[in-house]
Amino acid sequence: MLDKVPRILVTGASGLLGRTVVKILKEREWNVVGVAFSRVDSGLIKCDLRNQESVSALIEKEKPDVIIHAAAERFPDVVENKYEETCLLNVKASGHIASLAKHCGSKLIHISTDYVFDGTSPPYKVDDECNPLSKYGQTKLDSERAVLTEYPAACILRVPVLYGPVERLEESAVTCLLGVLKNSEPKSVSHYDKRCPAHVSDIARILYDMIALMMKGKTISGIFQWSGIEKLTKYEMTLVMSQIFSLPHAHITPSFTPGALRPYDPEMDRSRLTELGISHHTNFKDGIKDCLTPWL
Ligand SMILES: NC(=O)c1ccc[n+]([C@@H]2O[C@H](COP(=O)([O-])OP(=O)(O)OC[C@H]3O[C@@H](n4cnc5c(N)ncnc54)[C@H](OP(=O)(O)O)[C@@H]3O)[C@@H](O)[C@H]2O)c1
């Protein structure tokens, strides 16, 4: 039990991760302010994080105990084609939020990605060398550096490919595979790159546990990492979906072609979290069944 109900500001609250973070923290009866940009319904506050004056006014008004900064542009094709624009959100806004958090005395957890690694020598420790292969990964690495430069006491939480309740199947690189299964057109799916997918509710519970420790006075800062416990190729994920929902998969062939911009196996070491007693993993078969059932 905490002495005080914490006030949490969540950016990216309309996104795949942010929606579940807001839901789970509210279920714990924490005081949550969700911030979004274009999808501002269900009580979210609209703020363009690229507008520094708006962000300063928002944080000074809300005075959160903790900011979870989950907003980012993460669709690789958008980042490749609109790199400068993406940097304004992924990098510049992250640095600005970090400096405001420090100034206001708010704690900060900035969400980053396993795409900061090149995937050649897993599992990656938090201080292993980063070498992003894509512009997206580069913006996230630059965002980590911007945050820790402005606010060395901030936390970074690197997460792997995410799945969870989606507004459209294409919203997650995992759930979009159901579309491939349901469409009878022949298609090849990667059986090369390895991924450790995490359910967004597991990441939300990890954030809850991190903040609960902070609120009890434990000092935690720097880089933390979480990867799901099961390692699967996308082809193997489609086989799991095919089995759960009894869908034919003969039209899907495994592809062994490396993707130029994708890390082969970016599994991350979880020990900085597990040493704090923090660990949440939903079995992939159960997690994906829950998320995809509404789409059948
Ligand atoms: N999804 C994954 O598989 C994955 C994997 C590893 C790491 N991550 C990281 O996890 C974090 C959350 O990702 P996600 O999958 O939840 O992303 P998402 O579903 O694409 O959501 C992005 C969020 O950012 C908000 N946003 C975009 N432009 C904005 C702006 N100018 N001002 C304010 N907000 C803006 C969006 O708001 P509107 O939609 O309302 O415009 C939305 O809430 C990101 O940092 C991402 O890099 C994600």
What does this entry look like structurally?
- The strands form three sheets. The chain has a seven-stranded parallel beta sheet with strand order 3-2-1-4-5-6-10, with helices on both faces. Strands 7-9 form a two-stranded parallel ribbon.
- The chain has a single domain (7-165, 197-229, 267-282), classed as Rossmann fold (3-Layer(aba) Sandwich), CATH 3.40.50.
- Helix 5 (135-150) links the parallel strand 5 (107-113) and strand 6 (155-159).
- The longest helix is centred in the first third of the chain and has 22 residues, at 83-104.
- The protein has helices spanning 16-27, 52-62, 76-81, 83-104, 135-150, 176-182, 200-215, 234-245, 271-274, 284-292, and strands at residues 7-11, 31-36, 45-46, 66-69, 107-113, 155-159, 162-163, 187-190, 198-199, 222-225, 252-255.
- The chain is globular, with a radius of gyration of 19 Å.
- Helix content is 39%, strand content 15%.
- It contains ten helices and eleven strands.
- It has 296 residues and is of the alpha/beta class.
- The mean pLDDT is 97.
- Bound molecules: NADP nicotinamide-adenine-dinucleotide phosphate.
- Residues 12-18, 36-39, 47-50, 70-72, 74, 89, 111, 113, 140, 159, 161-162, 173 line the site of NADP nicotinamide-adenine-dinucleotide phosphate.
